[in-house]
Amino acid sequence: MEITREKALDYVRPFLKTRRYEHTVRVTDQAVDLAQRFGADTEKAEVASALHDYAKYKPLDLMKRWIETDRRLSKDLLDYHHELWHGPVGAYMLEQEIGLADPEILSAISSHTTGKKHMSLLDKIVFLADYIEPGRDFPGVDEVREIAETNLDGACALALKNTIVFLVSKERTVYPDTFHAYNDLI
Ligand SMILES: [Fe+2]
Ligand SMILES: [Fe+2]
């Protein structure tokens, strides 16, 4: 693979606020740890996680235009909270800007916020690393960390459940891919 952890982190750094960059570095370390634990490709895990929040602060109108014009991007994203856009849009921006072509890495970046149906090992690792990195302190995260010591699917299922329960408790919408991911793992 031509892109390294260092190159990936250097690429995203100017586009992220300091605390988001620091989160990115922690997610990258966490993802390598999980990849070693569960037998995934550590280099892909670190590149995908280094790049995962690339589009976090891209202008909403720019992301909206990407969703409207790239036929691979699901139009239903526009009906859901814009917080969900940076994963799928970021993946295709990186494909165009730096020639990121590995479909496994693109998928892991794309699905890191919502999960999706039939998540791959790498998808699960980046999703979970983003959820449990040491800077996270929301309710329930310690239980997910504990399960993640031994059981990747169990940890992802609980993280998805917590996300769904939280969104429902706030009367917010839940993106269908999150239900698909949960249903797959439960
Ligand atoms: Fe994100
Ligand atoms: Fe993140």
Would you mind describing this structure in some detail?
- Helix content is 63%, strand content 0%.
- The chain is mostly helical and 186 residues long.
- Helix 1 (5-12) packs parallel to helix 3, helix 2 crosses helix 7 (121-132) and helix 3 packs across helix 6 (103-110).
- The protein has one domain (5-137): Hypothetical protein af1432 (Orthogonal Bundle), CATH 1.10.3210.10.
- One fe (ii) ion (FE2) binds next to loops.
Short description:
By secondary structure, the chain is mostly helical.
Layout: helices, strands, pairs:
Blueprint lengths: L4 H8 L5 H21 L3 H10 L8 H10 L16 H13 L4 H8 L10 H12 L8 H8 L3 H18 L6 H10 L1
Helix pairs in contact: 1-3, 2-3, 2-7, 3-6, 3-7, 5-6, 6-7, 7-9, 8-9, 9-10
Rg over alpha carbons: 15 Å
The CATH topology corresponds to: Hypothetical protein af1432
Report the end-to-end length measured between terminal Cα atoms: 34 Å
CATH superfamily: Hypothetical protein af1432
Percent of sequence in beta strands = under 5%
Give me the number of helical elements.
10
Estimate nothing, just give the exact number of structural domains.
1
Question: How would a textbook summarize the main sheet?
Answer: none
Q: What do the pLDDT scores average to?
A: 97
Total beta strands = 0
